Amino acid sequence: MPRNIIDVIDLSVAEIDQLIATAEDIIANPVKYQDACAHKQLATLFFEPSTRTRLSFESAMLALGGSVLGFSEANSSSAAKGETVGDTVHTVSCYADIIAMRHPKEGAPYAAAQFSEVPIINAGDGGHNHPTQTLTDLLTIHREKGRLDGFTIGFCGDLKFGRTVHSLVNALSRYGNINFVLISPEELKLPRYVKEQSLKPKGIPYTQTTDLESVIPQLDILYMTRVQRERFFNEEDYLRLKDSYILTPEKLRSAKPDLSILHPLPRVNEIAVAVDKDPRAAYWKQVKNGKFIRMALILKLLGIEV
Ligand code: NCD
To answer: What is the mean pLDDT of residues 174-199?
Structure first.
């Protein structure tokens, strides 16, 4: 069986630390890695829209000297003819050495992996998980703070449908001395299963609030998210909740001087563009980090040492 990354806990803490170390080495010495994946092929199978995840995977493989193939919408694949994801992935695993797959249905990459002869990476499954965004987030936190423990992190926005939040909470629950502040409208609270899996068994402290401004002063990291329109059952609810939080320079006045602001992107309205100039904004650095950590992950899953 090939090694798959479906959930962030498919990687041990030691392996995550190693991936971060490899990504740091790639950032420092890119030339050393430029032919590491020569003659290897990455397939990106995206049944759902994406900019950063797909292109960072492709850019990562190209920067390793490999090549890429794939599709960026379900309609351009045989899914449109009624092919199952299992058969699609079985087919692609005959042509590629490694597959990154995004799908609107929770669990689809896990199911597809049963039909693959090569490693499958979950590039986002519905409102469930997004392990490689989490690796990106962890690399960013590590670069910003120099550590992955001992801080207060606020998650703000759509904590119900935001898969990046679920995976990052899960990952951080394995590091020590982290205080979680969950900021969302009542309707978009972190699902109970995430709290029960990640926070409660370990007695990890968390608070829930609807009010961003009252908690901003205590945060070391603020993880903003978009309200996930595509996962709503009706447009009315989306319209009512979409602008629940808008981070502005004024709201940041009471924040710590060394706060780090993260966002997986795309942003819609939840961070004013004026915040981009604030030195505490780390989300454009996060975009760059996404490529380097994916390079590290591809090398690991292909068993290539440089
Ligand atoms: C996120 C996703 O797809 O879950 N984007 C990303 O991969 N960088 C967040 C989002 O879509 O809001």
So the answer is: 97
